[in-house]
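Milestone M4 deliverable, item 7.
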Amino acid sequence: MSVGACAAALAAALTAPAGAAPAGAAPAGAAPAGAAPLSATGRQTPHWQLKDSGTDVRFRGLSAVSRHAAWVAGSKGTVLRTTDGGAHWRNVSPPGAADLEFRDIEAFDARRAVVLAIGEGEASRVLRTDDGGATWTESFRNTDAKAFYDCLAFFDRRHGLAMSDPVDGAFRILSTSDGGRSWKVLPGAGMPAAQDGEAGFAAGGQCLVTSGPRDAWLATGGGAHARVLHSADRGVTWTASDTPIPAGDPARGVFALAFRDRTHGIAVGGDYRADQASPRAAAVSGDAGRTWTTAAQPPPAYRSGVTWLPHTGSTALAVGPTGTDLTTDGGRTWKTLDTGSYDTVDCTPDRACWASGEKGRVARLE
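Output delivered:
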């Protein structure tokens, strides 16, 4: 369906009678192939359709290119690629990467992608492929034992950033101007001081995001306040703003960000521990991240991924281990759409949304 029809159907799902269960809905929050859940009015409602990835690794890295093409990256150095809408997945993992933990991947198209491995010291690496994963080139290997890289993001096909947890009291930023073929550490003079215990969360590849040619935001937790840092000059200088998402503990903070333009943003997070509540798990900004307001009706639990549906202006999805939530009013109110476990979510300009997570789970919104 068109993105407008999809948004309308999602809105209709929100207004369905309380407790109404879609007919034909599958357990674990995903419909089997060929099944289309129905709303109380008998109409098909959007739902995640699981795609068989052929593996059980956890995919915290996801980059959706189109309705047909997507990349996922995860544990045991695994990278998969599909070009037929998830019907088949090709294992295009870099040779010798089995000990690496991939947490973020950014694809430019079905053949070119950059993947980030996380960890202390040399475990943090960046690799690039230009031939659909047939070959990979390592373009960065961290040599500072104090650095730990969490996320990467691109403004365009040439310019991008990667972020590390604080080193010597401030977050460290890598920059590329050649599509990830080479990287340099940016000067730290323009980065505000980090709080005690503050860090990023390598939970779903969305702790660093961009919008437009120059604006970037990074998300933090672990410190006294969960913050969002904003740069308007491709990572050279940054300003920090507190958010109302609870922090004050290494397991709490902002885990993911999404900006539909340089002004309107959504932050999600909470406490990733399954036995801990996550009140105020989402916040919204209408001024490029300078100020944040708690969602009037936030997701009911910790969320590690968030994305805007393209061309809608006010509709977004958030995902986490306990489900998927939907907003149709720009992040002010959320309602659970699905109870399946996902770590990250991404939508494409041609109106496709993908999600991925534990036990090899990959799905497309149908």
